[in-house]
C-alpha cells in the first residue's frame, strides 16, 4: 500500500483520525465503466474468473486433511456397526452450528448420536474428563469434537485410557504438543495447512462429513441426505467466527448465502423472522443480526438452546427458541454496556488492556475485549472469575495481530487455553495475573513490529459523482461475500456540499449531497464519531461504499459513508 500523495487529498483530516492509503494502484474514475474496469485490474481479476462464480466442485478433496482417512473410516464403521457416537460441541456460534450439522447429517445416515455442550461460566471451553466418562457410561463407543479439543490433553488421555476413540475436529492453534487423540483434524496443525488454515470449526466438520459420505459411497451405503442442506449453517459459523472470506471459505459462504436466501433451514428461517431480516441476506446481515442472537445463548445462559434451534425439524419449536434467543440477546446488550463502562474505569490510562473483575459475566467479556481492541488498536484481555476462583480471560485483537500465537507465548501463565488469529482465551494460573499481563504486553509489542498502523483507511479509488449509478453498484455487489480478507471497495468522493440532513433511529443519518450540478444520497450507520462533521452547510470529502438502496428499490443507489474529511464551511 502507498499513502495517497498530499495533492490527491482534500484539505483537512479524517474525522476519525485516519490516514488514507491506496489499497492497490491509484484509481480515478468519472464513469461507472472505468471505475469497474479499474477495480478489476487493480485486484488482478477478470469478469470471467471463478472468483465471481465460486463452485462447490472446486472444493479441495477432504482426504488432503491430515488424519482425515483415519477419522472418516472410523466414523463410517461406527455407522455400519450401529455404534453410538457422542459429539462434544462448544457454546459459541461456530460450535453450536458445527454440532447441529454433525447431528443432523449423521442421524440421517442412520447413526445413533448424542451430544453435549459445556456451560461457559461453569465449565469453560474444551472437553473435560468428566464429559468423556459420562459419554462412555451412556453407551457411546466413539467421540467426535467440533470447534474444540486441540488443547484438551487430559480428556484425550482419559479417552485413550478407557478405550474410547475420540476424534478431535478443531481449528484452534495447537500447542507444540498435540493431544493423544484417535485422530486430530485441524488445518492449523503444522503438518497440515488444509484450506490455507482458514476454516472455522464448522468448516472442518463439513469436510469431515464429505469424507464420511465418500467412505460410505465406496461401500454402496451413501446416505440420501444432501450435505448442501447444511451450507446455511456453515456460512453463519464462518462469518460469526470472523474467518477470512477467501479461497475455500468464499466458496462455502457464497453457497451458504444462496441457501439462506432461497431455502433456509427451519431454525435459520425462524431466526431471520425474529431478527426482522427482510432483505437479501449478506455476510453483513449474518454478522449484525443472526450471529449475535446465536451467540447470546452461550453467553448468558446455555448454548444448547441455540443448538436445538439450529437442528430442529419443528417450525413451532424453532420459533419458540428463536424468540428465546432474541430476548437473551437484548439482555446481553445491557450487560455488555455496563461491563464495558466498568472495564474502562478500571483500566484508566493504562497502556496494557488487561483487566478482570469477579462481578463480570462470563458471556460478555469477549465482546468487551473486542470493543477495547477496536477502540485502542491493539489486543485486549478481559476476564471473569469462575466459581472456584480461577480468572478466565477472553482475548480479542486487530488485523495484523495473531491471538493464538500470543496465547502460546503466554502459555507459562495459562491453563486450558486456545485460540486462532482473531480470538482466544484461557485460565490464568493461580497467582500469575501480574506475570501474565507483563508477558501479554511484551508479546503485543513484539507482534506490533509487523502490524501496520491501525489508523489507516484503505481506498480503492477516487470517484466523480457520475459514477453513482446502479450499474456500478450491481457490479460491486459481485464481490460478496464481503468480510475479513475480502474487503468491500472503498471510495473517496471529493468536495461535496451537505444540503440536507435527516437523523433517523439508531444513530442512522441520511444526507443529501451535491457537487453543484449532481446530487447523491448518503447514509451513515452509527454516526456518533463523525456527527459534527456532517452538518448541513459543510463541504466535505467522503469515504465509503457505493451500494444499492434496498429501501427505495428500483435503480436507487446510496453512498454508505464510513468517514469524512472536512474541507470548508459555507457562510
Account of the 3D structure:
This protein has about 575 residues and is an alpha/beta fold. The protein folds into three domains: about 1-50 and about 455-570, Nucleic acid-binding proteins (OB fold (Dihydrolipoamide Acetyltransferase, E2P)), CATH 2.40.50.140; about 55-320, inorganic pyrophosphatase (n-terminal core), CATH 3.90.1640; about 350-450, Diaminopimelate Epimerase, Chain A, domain 1 (Roll). It has 16 helices and 20 strands. The protein has helices spanning about 30-40, 70-80, 95-110, 130-135, 155-160, 200-220, 230-240, 245-260, 265-275, 285-300, 305-310, 315-345, 365-375, 405-410, 435-450, 470-475, and strands at about 1-5, 20, 30, 85-90, 115, 140-145, 165-170, 185, 355, 380-385, 390-395, 415-420, 425-430, 455-460, 460-465, 490-505, 510-515, 520-525, 540-550, 555-570. It has a five-stranded mixed barrel with strand order 16-17-18-20-19. A five-stranded parallel beta sheet has the order 5-4-6-7-8, with helices on both faces. Helix 7 crosses helix 8 (about 245-260). The longest helix has about 35 residues, at about 315-345. It starts with a strand and ends with a strand. Mean pLDDT is about 90; it is low at about 1-5.
Helix tally equals: 16
Main β sheet profile: 5 strands, mixed, barrel
The proportion of residues forming helix, as a percent range, comes to 25-40%
**Distance, first to last CA:** 38 Å
Shape: globular
C-alpha Rg (nearest Å): 25 Å
Annotated CATH topology of the largest domain: inorganic pyrophosphatase (n-terminal core)
CATH second-level architecture of the largest domain:
Alpha-Beta Complex
> Would you count the extended β strands for me?
20
Amino acid at each position: 500500500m502507498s499513502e495517497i500523495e498530499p495533492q490527491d487529498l482534500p484539505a483537512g483530516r479524517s474525522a476519525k483520525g485516519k490516514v488514507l492509503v491506496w489499497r492497490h494502484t491509484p484509481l480515478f474514475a468519472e464513469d461507472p465503466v472505468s471505475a469497474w474496469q479499474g477495480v478489476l485490474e487493480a485486484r488482478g481479476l477478470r469478469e470471467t474468473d471463478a472468483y465471481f462464480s465460486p463452485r462447490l466442485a472446486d472444493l479441495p478433496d477432504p482426504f488432503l486433511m491430515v488424519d482425515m482417512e483415519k477419522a472418516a473410516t472410523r466414523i463410517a464403521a461406527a455407522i455400519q456397526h450401529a455404534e453410538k457416537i457422542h459429539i462434544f460441541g462448544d457454546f459459541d456460534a461456530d460450535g453450536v452450528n458445527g454440532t447441529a450439522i454433525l447431528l443432523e447429517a449423521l442421524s440421517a445416515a442412520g447413526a445413533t448420536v448424542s451430544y453435549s455442550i459445556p456451560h461457559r461460566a461453569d465449565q469453560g471451553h474444551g472437553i473435560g474428563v468428566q464429559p468423556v466418562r459420562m459419554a462412555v457410561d451412556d453407551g457411546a463407543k466413539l467421540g467426535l469434537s467440533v470447534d474444540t479439543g486441540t488443547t484438551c490433553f487430559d480428556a484425550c488421555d482419559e479417552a485413550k485410557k478407557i478405550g474410547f476413540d475420540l476424534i478431535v475436529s478443531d481449528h484452534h492453534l495447537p500447542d507444540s504438543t498435540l493431544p493423544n487423540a484417535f485422530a486430530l483434524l485441524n488445518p492449523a496443525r503444522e503438518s497440515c495447512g488444509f484450506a490455507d488454515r482458514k476454516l472455522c470449526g464448522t468448516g472442518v466438520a463439513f469436510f469431515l462429513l464429505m469424507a464420511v459420505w465418500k467412505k460410505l459411497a465406496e461401500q454402496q451405503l451413501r446416505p440420501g441426505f444432501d450435505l448442501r442442506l447444511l451450507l446455511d449453517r456453515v456460512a453463519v459459523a464462518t462469518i460469526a467466527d470472523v474467518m477470512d472470506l477467501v479461497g475455500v471459505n468464499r466458496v462455502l459462504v457464497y453457497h451458504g448465502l444462496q441457501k439462506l436466501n432461497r431455502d433456509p433451514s427451519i431454525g435459520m428461517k425462524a431466526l431471520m423472522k425474529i431478527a426482522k431480516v427482510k432483505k437479501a441476506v449478506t455476510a453483513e446481515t449474518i454478522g449484525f443480526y443472526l450471529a449475535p442472537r446465536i451467540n447470546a445463548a452461550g453467553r448468558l445462559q446455555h448454548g444448547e438452546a441455540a443448538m436445538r434451534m439450529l437442528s430442529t425439524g419443528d417450525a413451532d419449536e424453532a420459533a419458540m427458541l428463536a424468540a428465546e434467543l432474541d430476548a437473551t440477546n437484548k439482555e446481553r446488550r445491557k450487560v455488555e454496556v455496563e461491563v464495558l463502562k466498568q472495564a474502562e474505569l478500571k483500566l484508566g490510562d493504562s497502556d496494557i488492556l488487561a483487566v478482570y473483575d469477579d462481578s463480570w459475566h462470563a458471556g460478555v467479556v469477549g465482546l468487551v475485549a473486542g470493543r477495547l481492541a477496536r477502540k485502542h488498536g491493539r489486543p485486549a484481555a478481559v476476564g471473569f472469575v469462575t466459581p472456584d476462583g480461577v480468572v478466565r480471560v477472553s482475548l480479542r485483537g486487530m488485523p495484523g495481530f495473531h491471538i493464538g500465537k500470543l496465547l502460546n507465548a503466554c502459555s507459562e501463565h495459562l491453563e486450558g487455553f486456545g485460540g486462532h488469529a482473531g480470538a482466544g482465551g484461557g485460565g490464568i494460573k493461580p497467582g500469575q495475573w501480574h506475570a501474565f499481563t507483563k508477558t501479554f504486553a511484551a508479546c503485543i509489542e513484539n507482534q506490533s513490529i509487523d502490524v501496520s498502523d491501525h489508523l489507516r483507511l484503505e481506498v480503492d479509488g477516487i470517484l466523480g459523482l457520475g459514477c453513482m449509478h446502479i450499474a456500478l453498484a450491481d457490479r460491486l455487489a459481485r464481490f460478496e461475500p464481503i468480510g475479513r480478507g475480502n474487503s468491500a471497495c472503498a471510495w473517496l468522493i471529493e468536495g461535496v456540499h451537505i444540503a440536507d440532513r435527516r437523523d433517523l433511529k439508531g444513530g442512522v443519518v441520511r444526507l443529501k449531497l451535491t457537487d453543484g450540478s449532481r446530487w447523491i444520497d448518503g447514509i451513515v450507520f452509527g454516526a456518533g464519531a463523525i456527527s459534527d462533521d456532517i452538518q448541513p452547510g459543510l463541504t466535505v470529502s467522503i469515504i465509503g461504499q457505493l451500494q444499492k438502496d434496498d429501501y427505495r428499490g428500483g435503480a436507487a443507489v446510496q453512498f454508505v459513508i464510513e468517514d469524512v474529511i472536512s474541507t470548508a464551511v459555507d457562510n
